[in-house]
Amino acid sequence: MNEKQKKEIGKFLSLILRHSPETIQIKLDENGWADTAELISRCAKRGKTFTQEDLEEIVRTNDKQRYAFNEDNTKIRANQGHSIEVDLALKTAEPPEFLFHGTVSKFVEAIRKEGLQKMSRQHVHLSEDKTTAEKVGSRRGVPVILTVRSGEMHQDGVVFYLSENGVWLTDQVPAKYINF
């Protein structure tokens, strides 16, 4: 499987495992897990052909570590970013003093007024480093990097979670905690 194919399959997996499993008539369990054999079979019916080994390579090499297997690789799920209701059994964690969020300038004014909202996702996504935030923000244009005073938020009682792939998650970030 070449890099272009891996990227195409990865995007399709993101659609299925994070947003729209009904696209291939697959059911995710309450924790977001899909049976890998069924996933491979149903994707093939939609013209997205890959093997278990290909799937393992995609999971292992995905630059954002978006996906995870269960212990015996018979189930797969997205680590975060769902717009559908799943319980990832995230554990609360104490964040570092500062976290970062990448966006673009057209959203800055709304963020100044309303803070960062989860919108159609289950959580607001934050990163520990500016480089990751830049990558996220640059998907929609020239990135604007916001600094979130996460340590202060945590002291004020806001709950944070750390996903398996190192993305910090919270329900919202009020504007008063954002350095623009």
UniProtKB/TrEMBL annotation:
GO biological process, one term: tRNA splicing, via endonucleolytic cleavage and ligation
HAMAP family, alphabetized: KptA (MF_00299)
Native species: Taibaiella soli
Identification of the protein by name: Probable RNA 2'-phosphotransferase
Family: Belongs to the KptA/TPT1 family.
Record keywords, A-Z: NAD, Transferase
EC number assigned by the record: 2.7.1.-
Superkingdom to which the source organism belongs: Bacteria
GO MF entries: NAD+ poly-ADP-ribosyltransferase activity; tRNA 2'-phosphotransferase activity
Gene behind the chain: kptA
Keyword NAD part of the UniProt annotation: yes
